[in-house]
Design brief:
homodimer; alpha/beta; six-stranded parallel sheet; 6 strands
Amino acid sequence: MWNARAVNFVSLDIHTPSKETARYLRFPLVSRPHTQRSEMNTASFSLQPEVSAPPPERDRFFEAARHRIDAKTKPPGSLGKLETVAVRLAWIQQNLMPQVRRKRICVFAGSHGIAVTGVSAYPPEVTWQMVLNFLDGGAAINVLARHGGIAVHVVDAGVDADWPEPVLARPDFFVRKTRRGTRNFLEDRAMTPAECDAALQAGREQGRLAAANGIHLLGIGDMGIGNTTAASALFAALLGLDARDVVGRGTGVSEAGVDRKARVVAGALRKHAAGAVSPRGWLEAVGGYEIAAMAGTILEAAAHRLPTVIDGFIATAAAAVAFSMEPACREFCFFAHRSDERAHGAVLAALGADPLIDLGMRLGEGTGAALAMHIIDAAAKVMCEMATFESAGVSGPAEIVRK
Amino acid sequence: MWNARAVNFVSLDIHTPSKETARYLRFPLVSRPHTQRSEMNTASFSLQPEVSAPPPERDRFFEAARHRIDAKTKPPGSLGKLETVAVRLAWIQQNLMPQVRRKRICVFAGSHGIAVTGVSAYPPEVTWQMVLNFLDGGAAINVLARHGGIAVHVVDAGVDADWPEPVLARPDFFVRKTRRGTRNFLEDRAMTPAECDAALQAGREQGRLAAANGIHLLGIGDMGIGNTTAASALFAALLGLDARDVVGRGTGVSEAGVDRKARVVAGALRKHAAGAVSPRGWLEAVGGYEIAAMAGTILEAAAHRLPTVIDGFIATAAAAVAFSMEPACREFCFFAHRSDERAHGAVLAALGADPLIDLGMRLGEGTGAALAMHIIDAAAKVMCEMATFESAGVSGPAEIVRK
């Protein structure tokens, strides 16, 4: 049901070389006349009426979905979060038989100017090396996505690398690079407004593609050496948290490295406080291209009523940006897991997010999303496939026999 | 590697009617001469030397497995519990390429004499009605097992029902009934020693079958109206916990119902304190046939180095019994999830168990095990399928470039 309605294309301007644009146009997108939107400020984007349904309709739908799941052969509520996920999914998809058959994770990669300051345990070239690993199928996200029956798209949202021709021809690889990495945000704003637009659009394109391809559940993940520091700076700015409370060990830096990250974040906040007055402004000042792109995906997926699974620490930063740009898109997001990155718990609490799993993971790439999507799929199947007390001839709690 | 060694059959006496025995013998078991063991007391069972490997061998194996997973393209430890699970699994299977391809969950059902005292929100006949639901594929465990590519065996370990002929012919249904339900343990001991042996053997049979069938990962789950009360009594007795601290809402009783369960548990402890002096004694006094059977499966699977996934509250009671009978079998168990049943957290802490997921589930049937098995399978695949830094040409943390 869901893909028959609320399919609106908000903006189609793609800031990419003509080659990538041509490739993009190979996809069978049905576009409608659209208004150019700047997304320069938080209030510039608004979802369609179908998305922001009036509360009574929502309440009635939730009640119907809960009624349906309570008829299943189990004590009411005994499947815990599987039940609440199933009910939310039904509402998002506007379908009491929610479907999670077609799953996709988009991994957005970007290089970070801040990486040269030694905020990561790994050198900056690991970003492009890992992109090739994703395309070769050898990374953790490839393993976990195959395991969960999930397709993977890899998006170069701004990686400091040139790609070999064979890789460029891959249908699952999207080179949407505006610049080879952000600027060092201790010296300059990380990106220009035009670059930020381009990165947002690279993400929106994936949301639009997923809807057009009939994807039922879309995950987002990241790759970018240095990006925990960018994410930390965004959390400090958007959620009003102290620099010391938003940094952690990232890929595995020492305690001294964590101190250095805190000083970098504090320095960035001081430097950009005067110039970055909106969430979008902070995204430009201290963000990353892959973070902006993920925010774009969240915003666009919501416009298509497509549920999105937010991976870990970095993807949560993108969610914080997207939610501050358009609060209504929150309803379409599932938080996958509680990252082992120290600040993630506080950040999730500040966002009122309750993730599905907690396995001490801190890798990114969408790995937490891949595992969570199995659980969300399970929830949909509980709703669709379980017998009811009536159909199975099982006595309900009303028929208590006390001898 | 694992199934080529340590395959020992501890005892093959099956206390079942001749029809079931005949069915059991259809399976291609290779038995060895065995010693009859009574399992009447905690120390009567001991694992083979292959299972209780000397610590240095274990340490060397763990080191090799950790070395292998640290070479994968990810920061060391960044996949959290997936990594510790993969390493444990490698050790259990004695294979640095651990396999979780063939998965099975055994759901053990039993009726409980205590159910007539109104400790459950559901009438006792729900136990057999749900067994038919399992066989019909409509229960939550069927849905989640299908979702995870997991086969299901259903074992009648003592259900108060006769089964229709078509159901008896099912190869995935094992009628191993000694008695149609335990006795009300407020009036009598729940089971006789011979019945307890029979139930343990019904569980051991499943451990043996799984090993013979080349199962890589075995889950155990339960069905039995009244069995949270039996499990609570076992926890109080075996772990020295107060009756009030081991009871919860079960299938969904009211607070008054929880009070009633606490009184039942306290009464049972008083009644049997003098007679039940060992874990096995408490199992007979206040346990259930399905709980005894699950303990048997845990013990037997360990003897075959077959990893076992413990579902929720009731399966944890079986684990507590099995661990007290044979501490070495703990090494082969993974705890699936933290149940929403109030006392489960305290019980897991008392057992030093750290479950994989926490989704607020409290259904049993092996539903938590089914979801956890996907995660354990993921861990095995991380170990087997991920590229290494060397194979993928990715720079490691030693090559830090600081400009």
